[in-house]
Amino acid sequence: MFNTCLSLMLALGMHSGLEGHYNGLHPHLRCTVNNTIAGVYYNSEQKPSAYVGYTFDSLFDTELEIGWVTGYSGAKISPFTRITKDNWYIAPAYEVTPKKAWGVTFGFEFPLFSFK
Fold it and tell me: Global pTM?
């Protein structure tokens, strides 16, 4: 058999502070090698997104993820960041339409299947 870095996950997210209507169901395929992450998912704007980034240990037994993501309105490539603890996450959100605004996304992400 062979080893792989891939996991199929599902994230359930809620958007706060934004005016638009956003998808809260995010199927997600991720590869993790050491602290480097890469993957694809169905984003809040109901489009595919690809990302690459890095995870850092942070305060209170959390992890900080930072990187670059595609697939959102307003830019071909955007920076992203989120803080995770266990299966929970929180991330800043920026809305281009209907008006420019900042918000936050809260969510719960869990693995469905690991291809290891």
Answer: 0.90
